[in-house]
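S.,

Sequence below, as promised.
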Amino acid sequence: MTAPIRVLIVDDSATIRSLLSALLSRDPQIEVVGEAPEPAVARQMIKDLSPDVITLDVEMPHMNGLEFLEKIMRLRPMPVVMVSTLTQKGAEVTLAALELGAVDFFPKPTDNAAALLEGGGAELVAKVKAAARARVRPLSRTIVVPPLEGFDPGDSVVAIGSSTGGVEALLQVLSAFPANCPPTVITQHMPPHFTASFAARLSRMCRPQVSEARDGDVLRPGHVFIAPGGEAHLEITGRTTLRCKLDASAPVSGHRPSVDVLFRSVAASAGGRAVGAILTGMGSDGASGLLEMRKAGAATIGQDEASAIIYGMPRAAFERGAVQTQLPLEKIGPEILRLCGTEKEKRHARSG
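The prediction came back faster than expected:
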């Protein structure tokens, strides 16, 4: 039998520690080896217990979760799942934690803790198991790519899908984009309240304008649109003038927004003038949609196994034949731009 995943819970609330321990201990593949009320105690327990995964609270006495996470990722990189509140402040801090190297986050149970306990905490268990399999690397900063001189986006369209590990990955990809990048649409698996903060954060850190997509937004160069987390699927519609469409229908393959839904709409509306990229994430969302994009003539890219935090979505797409090229994360942004230029040249040659 495979040894159980050893988990250390770090939270200043005894109630939350007890609840998280109860949720995780229900799964025979997980063993809670310790509970720490604050980072100083956790530091010693990490040395003594060598856990496989840490769940880490954001707000704690003496040293907050972000400071402690940064020390962990610099000195002893290991899988960390942040436990945070679903608030504006919680979203900002959680996004910063994911950029520092946390694998994922779990919404802290507050008012409805009893209901969560009754439900079995399947989401938390899944996140901890995924974190145990994640490729965690020492803390590093985003590689900043110099802006392209004289880039012409033409009529190209870019579509990107990602999930676990996607916060860091999308920042890396978009950091290569110039201010007049091709119009870009993104589906990143996130809960409500988080994507608006994420878009604003990316807009501050990257050259293009990044925003949460609204129904009817026109796709235009220099703009990046992110699907609203947990609320609606993002699609694009139209032929000459492409627009965002938000669809609040049921989840697809367990996800809303779904990468497959986005990619299929791009295949139908943009066809061969599109470039699709699938990044790190659990599961297979996006694989069939990316294949439809490739069949429609779009260029397609998948993140390679070595650079992906979770090589699930890119693997599924690659094995299904949807991926033309696999690349390490730092090369995906520049390759998207190159492909947009290449496809534009091909179209001009055909029209001439």
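Residues 5-133 form a domain with the Rossmann fold fold (CATH 3.40.50.2300).

Coffee later?
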